[in-house]
Design a protein that fits this description.
about 290 residues, alpha+beta, Arc Repressor Mutant, subunit A, Trna Endonuclease, Chain: A, domain 1, 2 domains, two-stranded antiparallel ribbon, Restrct_endonuc-II-like
Length: about 290
């Protein structure tokens, strides 16, 4: 608190300091989010997090049975690619316009799956339109991964979190808490060629401000990470030259014992779970 000068121009007396302090407004109150350990861990770190609605191509309050069916489909990489393509059409689309990674018959079948799930409706000429337009696939990916972390691994999870750290931009895509540990996942739904160094730098600024126990950089792609993604991340490590990345399995990489990079090859959630298990073991005391 800045000392106010006394009427005599000298330093304020003890009584004047007490009177001034008694009349000063109280500071902002940190409100503990009810029922969310993940958000509470952010508050304990000095942040006042808020949660923004996700940009989704379906209602956020999707009923449990419909949500389960959607999550089951989102477990398939081809379905995620198709839905991402349908979202990017921003309007009417034919099945083959939504994806070029499967044949016409499979694309038509996937479009009908969207209709069955209540996400799309048929139009004339064999075309379709999403019932709940979204801007991009990122919110859906966050929703899916958060739901699986909660259901498969028992994490308390929050998504789309703004933690308002000074001079640190962007949101925390997924934060999760379990065993007294805080996990932060950065989700990328675009291919590696679209990843820019400023995005990676922003991710590291968030990690350094948040100080989670584990951080995972998730690329929803089947393409290998060693060509572009790993070098971009290594360039931002505080230790230079950086230590060589360690392949855990497939495209699950450890840059440090507490920082991991994964892609979607074979199974996105399986790779994330592998990175979490590896990171939690690294946090444990040495074996006797």
């Amino acid at each position: 608190m800045t000392q106010r000068p006394s009427p005599s121009g000298n330093l304020p007396t003890a009584r004047e300091l007490e009177v001034y302090a008694a009349g000063a407004p109280s500071g902002p109150r940190l409100l503990l989010p009810a029922g969310s350990e993940a958000l509470a861990m952010l508050v304990r770190r000095g942040f006042q997090p808020t949660v923004a609605p996700l940009d989704l191509p379906f209602p956020a309050d999707l009923e449990s049975e419909a949500a389960e069916k959607l999550a089951e489909q989102l477990g398939h990489y081809s379905f995620r690619l198709f839905l991402r393509g349908a979202i990017l059409r921003h309007g009417s689309f034919s099945p083959t316009e939504a994806t070029r990674y499967v044949g016409a018959a499979q694309a038509a079948k996937t479009a009908e799956t969207l209709v069955e799930l209540g996400l799309a409706e048929r139009e004339d000429g064999g075309r379709y339109r999403l019932r709940y337009p979204a801007h991009n696939f990122g919110g859906t990916l966050e929703w899916y991964v958060a739901r699986e972390l909660r259901g498969r691994l028992g994490f308390d999870v929050a998504v789309g979190v703004k933690f308002h750290a000074p001079e640190v931009g962007g949101d925390l895509d997924v934060v999760a808490a379990a065993e007294g540990r805080l996990l932060y996942l950065e989700m990328k739904s675009s291919p590696p060629k679209h990843l820019a160094s400023d995005e990676v730098g922003a991710f590291f600024r968030r990690v350094r401000a948040l100080r989670p126990h584990l951080a995972i950089f998730v690329m929803d792609t089947a393409l290998r990470l060693s060509d572009k993604v790993l070098p971009l991340l290594q360039a931002e490590l505080s230790t230079q030259p950086p230590p060589p990345p360690r392949r855990v399995v497939r495209e699950v990489w450890a840059l440090t014992p507490h920082l991991y990079v994964v892609n979607a090859r074979q199974d996105l959630m399986g790779n994330i779970a592998t990175a979490i298990a590896e990171g939690l073991r690294a946090l444990s005391p040495p074996a006797p």
